[in-house]
Amino acid sequence: MKVEPEAVVREFWRLIATNDFGSVKSVLAAEFVMEWPQSGERIRGADNFARMNGEYPTQGAWQFTVNRLVAQGSFVVTQVSVSDGTLAAEAISFFTVERGEITKLVEYWPEPFEAQANRRHLVELME
Amino acid sequence: MKVEPEAVVREFWRLIATNDFGSVKSVLAAEFVMEWPQSGERIRGADNFARMNGEYPTQGAWQFTVNRLVAQGSFVVTQVSVSDGTLAAEAISFFTVERGEITKLVEYWPEPFEAQANRRHLVELME
Asked: Which of A9, B57, B81, B126 is the most buried (most CB within 10 A)?
């Protein structure tokens, strides 16, 4: 039975949200690679990915909200809000899914920035 | 003739790359809204969007490289490299396309961050 890439990625986020990061390995391919282009960091393998998540400093259980998901062929993009109750961050994740497993993840973490005065006459400020 | 959302978004980037920002209005709906969640800025209307791009400080013509595009139904996501020859930035853009026009754009601008020492034993550094 072919598992659709979208379903694989939804399962990835469901498993991550258990905070049992070893469980996530069930949807990662043996050759899984994750890249964070902003820092130039690359993690190879499901074990290293699970360890990195498990060792990440936290104030409590991590919660994840999938705000957007767009899927086409082998490619799935999500925009997810992440929080441990103290820290809050946004992740944009580009997944490649092959044969029912995630083979690659390229992930971005955009940080807040100041609204700019030189375009204030053209914008409105959201809540 | 129905124009596919992916084609509309590719035309958006082609027109932006002309640096004639008024030309982009041809693919924007009357009710077009753009949001930058990182700064809480919202721009309403094609005219304000074109003006904001035209007034943005620049060292030269802006160039755009569409590195990734994922489309599903009315939704298209792109990851684009932007440069004026001096500045370089990455944009991740979530488009909504309806009736052949872009009605909404939610855009993120992730900045570089430092690779963290506390996970150095689990990662490799990319070039």
From this structure: A9
Q: Is the pTM of this model over 0.90?
A: yes
Token duo for residue A15: 């498993």
CA distances from B33 to A44, A85, B28, B47 (A): 39, 31, 9, 11
Are the beta carbons of B108 and A108 separated by less than 8 Å?
Answer: yes
A76/B70 touch (CB, cutoff 8 Å), yes or no: yes
* Helix/strand/coil for A123: coil
> Mind listing the pLDDT tens digit of every residue in chain B (127 residues)?
678 999 999 999 999 999 999 999 999 999 999 999 999 999 999 999 999 999 998 889 999 999 999 999 999 999 999 999 999 999 999 999 999 999 999 999 999 999 999 999 999 999 8
For A54, which residue in chain B has the nearest alpha carbon?
B119
Q: Out of A35, A70, A122, whose CB is closest to B72?
A: A70
